[in-house]
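Why predict the complex rather than its parts? Because the way molecules touch one another can change local conformation, and only a joint prediction can capture that. The input here totals 226 residues.
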Amino acid sequence: NAGVTQTPKFQVLKTGQSMTLQCAQDMNHEYMSWYRQDPGMGLRLIHYSVGAGITDQGEVPNGYNVSRSTTEDFPLRLLSAAPSQTSVYFCASSGGGSNQPQHFGDGTRLSIL
Amino acid sequence: GDSVTQMEGPVTLSEEAFLTINCTYTATGYPSLFWYVQYPGEGLQLLLKATKADDKGSNKGFEATYRKETTSFHLEKGSVQVSDSAVYFCALSVRNSGYALNFGKGTSLLVTP
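Output of the joint prediction:
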């Protein structure tokens, strides 16, 4: 039971570098989302997707891009990393509907120097 | 917009003490409500949920009741254990964000022997 798999688990970048955080789920869930977790801020929604080919912005989308070419994968791209993007990033998936719980990956801890 | 407010921590309790973590929400419509738990170094796990008014969610000795009249979803446990030490997040699902979650800021709980 893999569930939601995030890679890498840790990453250090320099300001201005780009990278992609990977997220894959094997539960055939239509709904996927990305959150960032910062001390004292809880988790905030970055982007979400309600199915392949459909994405939309959450609360804090600036500096991040997403795409959803398959049901399984939902990568998060940082085009030009900034120190303010230092955070722990979580990917989640669900079967849709307000009563369905989100299934979370183990997170990616990202540091931008 | 929709929001969740939960009591700030950290909360420190002795083993076998009674736990209450307050959570109130603001929402249009009738959201589903969740409590997630995050153990150190791990992702978020669903602890319990309630999908309509007066529902009581329960799991592992934890309980929370969806109170529409007071817009609250307080988490309670009658006798905490050291293994309950974690960060607890109250959240509601937002239909117009693909049922992604809107989180409170989290409450850190430390249970001492």
